[in-house]
Amino acid sequence: MSHLLDYPMYLRASTEHAEVIYTRAENYHAVKNAPSAQAKEAVLTLKDDDSTYLILKGEPQAPGEGVSAVYQGNGGVLVVPTGRVFVRLNEGARVEAHAPAFRKLGFVITQSLPYAPHVAWLEREDGDAAAALRSVGALEKLPQVCNVEPQLLAARAWR
C-alpha cells in the first residue's frame, strides 16, 4: 500500500476559495530534492526556496522521505503540496497567542510577519505533509481563524 494514500483525495485551495478543488493525481508523485539522475525522468520541475521538487509519472518505486502526492486542478495543472500551511486570523488577533492551539494539532509557527501579526506560516512538528493536509479542517475550526491555505507549488504561468 502506497503512503501516497495518506494524502487526501481532494484538496481545497483555501477556506476563502473553497470552490477551487484539486484532486490527487493517481499516476504521479513528487520527490523533494531528488538525486540529479532522476531529473531527466521528470515531467515537471518546481523550485521553492532551497528545495527542488520533481514530478514523476507512476507510483514511487519505494516510499521514502521527500516523496509526496501530486494534485491536479482544472485544466490539468499539476501542483505539489509542500506541507506548509498559511493561516490568517481575524484582524487584531495575534498568531503567537494561538501557538498552543496550533501545537495541539501538531503544528508550529515557522514564520510570522511583523507587519501582519495576524498571519503565519505553519508546518507540522513531525514534518508530515500528508498529515498537514488532513489537518486543514481542524485548523479552520479554531477560534478566530478566517483562512487556511496549504502551500501548493505550480509551474509559473506566463501571461
Task: Give a summary of the structure in a few sentences.
With 159 residues, the protein is mainly β. It has helices at 99-104, 129-134, 136-140; strands spanning 10-12, 21-24, 28-32, 44-48, 51-57, 67-68, 71-72, 78-89, 107-113, 116-124, 145-154.
Question: Topology of this protein?
Answer:
Blueprint: E1 10-12, E2 21-24, E3 28-32, E4 44-48, E5 51-57, E6 67-68, E7 71-72, E8 78-89, H1 99-104, E9 107-113, E10 116-124, H2 129-134, H3 136-140, E11 145-154
Antiparallel strand pairs: 1-2, 2-7, 3-5, 3-6, 4-5, 7-8, 8-10, 8-11, 9-10
Describe the structure.
With 159 residues, this protein is mainly beta. The chain folds into 2 domains: 3-79, no CATH class; 83-154, Peptidase S8 propeptide/proteinase inhibitor I9 (Alpha-Beta Plaits). The chain is 11% helix and 42% strand. The chain has helices spanning 99-104, 129-134, 136-140; strands at 10-12, 21-24, 28-32, 44-48, 51-57, 67-68, 71-72, 78-89, 107-113, 116-124, 145-154. The strands form 2 sheets. Strands 1, 2, 7, 8, 9, 10 and 11 form a 7-stranded antiparallel β-sheet that branches. Strands 4-5-3-6 form a 4-stranded antiparallel β-sheet, with no helix packed on it. It is globular. The termini are far apart.
